Amino acid sequence: MELLQGTLDLLILRTLIFGSQHGQGIARAIQETSDKELLVEHGALYPALQRLEERGWISAKWGVSSNNRKARFYSLTPAGRKQLIKETNKWKRLAGAIARILGPEGAGG
Amino acid sequence: MFGRKRKLDDFTSEIEAHLQIEIERMREQGLSEEEARATARRSFGNLMQAEERFYESRRWLWWDHRWQDVRYALRVLRKSPGFTAIAVLTIALGIGATTAIFSIVDATLLHPLPYPQSEQLVSIEDDLPGVGAHDVGMSEPEWQDLQRSGIFEHVSPTWFDENNLTGSSQPACVRLLIVAPNYFALLGVKPQLGRAFNPEDHSPGLILEVLISDGLWKRSFGGDPHILDRSIRLDTDLYRIVGVMPQGFDAPGRTTEERNIEVWIATSFYGPPMSDHPPRSGRILPTAVARLKPGLTIAQAQSRLDALVAALQKEFPEDYPKLSAWTVRLLPLKERVVGNTRQSLILLLGAVGLVLLIGCVNVANLLLARASARGREMAVRQALGAARQRLMSQLLTESVLLSLIGGIAGLAILFCIKGFLLRLLPDSLPRLNEISINSPVLLFAFGTSVLTGAIFGLAPALHAGHFDLTPALKEAARGSTGSGKQARTRRLLVIAEFALSLVLMIAAGLLLRSFWDLLNVPLGFNPQNVMAVRTRLPYPNDPKIDTYATPAQEAPFFRELLRRCRALPKVEEVALGDTASIPLDESLRDLKLISEGQFLFTVEGGDIQSDEPAVAERSSVTPEYFHLLKIPLLRGRLFDESDNDKAPQVGVVNEAFARTYWPNQNPIGKRFRKARADSPWTTVVGLIANARTESLAETGVPKIYLDLYQTGGKRLAIFLRGDLDAAAIPGEVREQVQSVDPALPVSGAQTLSETVSASLSERRFSMEIVALFALTALLLAALGIYGVISYMVSERTHEIGIRIALGAGRRTIQQMVLRQGLGLAIAGAAVGLVGAAVVSRLMAGLLYGVRPTDPLTFAGVALLLIGVALLACYVPARRAMRVDPLVALRHE
């Protein structure tokens, strides 16, 4: 399943709530926690990370990965945490609303 | 934006790390090195695109694009030097002229006066609106009230006068300003040599110390460094020089003479030669300047001043009758200096702005023509994936660059001819020596350039913005390019250009006709072969040393001077008068108004009810004056020997005077007198024809001539008629004057024709400038229509070829092209005529003898414009005529 426009930012923020992670790790985590339903084009991840960093929602520094490789680690900033809560609520409301509109027929069809 | 820049390298190595981690993970899942690498790449997606997106997001791209655009634009401009030269020249002309006018506006209107904290400096004007009198001056007690009011740091009355300076190399008539001792402390200016007056000095009478100007120091004293404490005589009174003002120090005055003061004298305006206790009602102090207390705005000061005036009116009801409604007004001092020029300067800036606008239209037209010729380039670039935005921004870069080059060229030209231009300016313009090309002016030129570039680049850029690809590529293949829409825009631009030019040209035409009419107006006197030379009798403060105290004491000097001048070679006639009798002389107008000139009088037996005095022009002359100037006597007699200081005063009036005050009556024998009860009556003995001696534009100004032997006079003009040598006369007259009294100065020798022409100098200046702008506009409009028609011809070469091949006559082809041009010119002229009718109404005050909608000027100028348009179209029309059908058709 392709990612909906605008949801990648939310997923990245959500992934980082468990601690700092590098780009490849974030991509993997999104794929695995969604039971491989969501495919993230890894290349698309980096401009998104770039954007979030510029907005001050995540911060980055170079570190060493579990298999001893140099990698850039991203972590959630307090502003990012707030943003995550806001976005999550919005998303839940939206999803609920869409579900109500589609109703049982939608589920059946 | 640029502060937290992340390097591209950093980004690349992050992606590299990602790929490595992914590869290792795949390897762990049992894939081969090759497979692992391929999978990792695949799941990453487009690597290049990620990097590109990073790059674009970093704004480097923006600068990159701009730099690309600039380089590309330079290459394009270099490739078509003809186009570039014409465009740059047009812009250089427009921006150079606009900047030149702006530099004047900047120096005169925008800059603060060159004194410390000059925003605190004000001019004080007393008005009596109840009796319609303005700027009437103040009395000494009122000055003291203002000094003590707590509103001002200092208040100083100023009193402009002339004096005879003796004790230097040659007697000279110097411009003098009588001020309070605090004057220089008030302005905050120090002398370059010596000291200023002591601001605390409040002794009675004149303080016998003077400061002199740098100019006078160098001219009359050879720049002597030991000038201090030297004695000089001003109108025979002895003074001591205590200081020399710095070079370039101009007094803040309203007229040129008041700004170029040569000697300053201080007084507290009481005590001999003035009254010991000056009365409150004696408004003898003509003008005043003041410095507000720090922190006080003019509005705050004005409201406190209004309260003070109200209190004084209550305290001295006899001195301030309710009827006159005395008020005191504070004006920024700058307003007094430059206020008169604001209107005309802003008008000038408007005219030059119009020229710049026409230039813009022209360049826009050239660019559009080129844009259509480059249609194919644009289409190809767009087809290859160039974004429209990029194409538009590139075109805009080109035009702004063009405009900047033009601006720089314009400034360069301006720098080169700066000196020449400054000499063109009339001397009456205040703050002339402050005009310079400084940073605000440069900033203005830069801003105008960028704005201009954006304005004339907009049309082509917008066209590139919505550009239909397919037809452009197809048309380009056929060698014909411009779209219909573009051609229409170009025609509209040419029409606009013609309309704007016509407005300017009609304005210039009307001014020119006014000027011409004024030059040819019947003067009523004959200035040919007449020269006027000035001298001035001293008016000492000490009556004991006054040798010219009464008209009877002056008469022998007048007679001797006339006798001697009559004997000069080639001199046929001689007369004397005061300086108000010099026809159309505009110098020292204010001073003349006080001492001579305008005169309030009442007519005997007039309407008793209205004690409102009448005003007329007045001068004192010797009887020879009328014959010398060829002003005919219509009735009665001129002055003669019997009219001396013991006989009753007599006068000669002109027809306008007689008609105004004694309509349909014989004026001879009628009497009038100065508007003061104790003045003696003056009997009219002669009636003369009207002459335009006061104003070229006005006929029939009521005028009174009195007998110089009866009134006496200090500021004198010696009139000489004959086949004179203008170069020798000043020296010869000086010799004669000084052989009668060696202490008298002689100056200002001028032929009357020069005086007449000088009275037109301001009109001439504005006419010349507007005419110059109009000519430039005409030239630009001609270039514009030439460009459009040439382009049309080249666009239709193919069609013309077919027409010729099918048997169309070459004359027909030529006429077809000319008709196209004529259509544009007539449309432009029609729009312009409407615009001109509106604009010329605003100019009504500047015109003489022509109505603002003078049909002859309107029609003539419109025809001229259309004629020039036809001429400009003639060249491309001939080219069209000569089209070889074979070549034209084979071209395809």
Distance between the termini of chain A: 18 Å
Give the overall average pLDDT of chain A: 81
Q: Structural class, from secondary structure content of chain B?
A: alpha+beta
> What would you report as the Rg of chain B, rounded to the nearest angstrom?
38 Å
- Percentage beta strand of chain B: 15-25%
Q: Describe the sheet with the most strands of chain B.
A: 6 strands, mixed, barrel
Task: State the total count of DSSP E strands of chain A.
Answer: 3
Oligomer: heterodimer
User: What's the count of strands of chain B?
Assistant: 21
Instruction: Summarize model confidence as the mean pLDDT of chain B.
Output: 85
Poorly predicted ranges of chain B (pLDDT <50, ≥5 residues)? 476-482
What is the 3D shape of chain A? globular
Gap between N and C termini of chain B, in Å? 54 Å
Largest interface: A-B, 21 and 23 residues
Number of helices of chain B: 30
Q: Which strand order do you get reading across the main beta sheet of chain B? A: 2-3-8-5-7-6
Structural class of chain A: alpha+beta
Portion in strands of chain A: 5-15%
Shape of chain B: globular
Query: Whole-number radius of gyration of chain A?
Result: 16 Å
Low-confidence stretches of chain A: none
Describe this structure in a few short sentences.
Chain A is an alpha+beta fold and 109 residues long. Chain A has four helices and three strands; from the N terminus they run αβααββα. The longest helix of chain A is centred in the last third of the chain and has 31 residues, at 78-108.
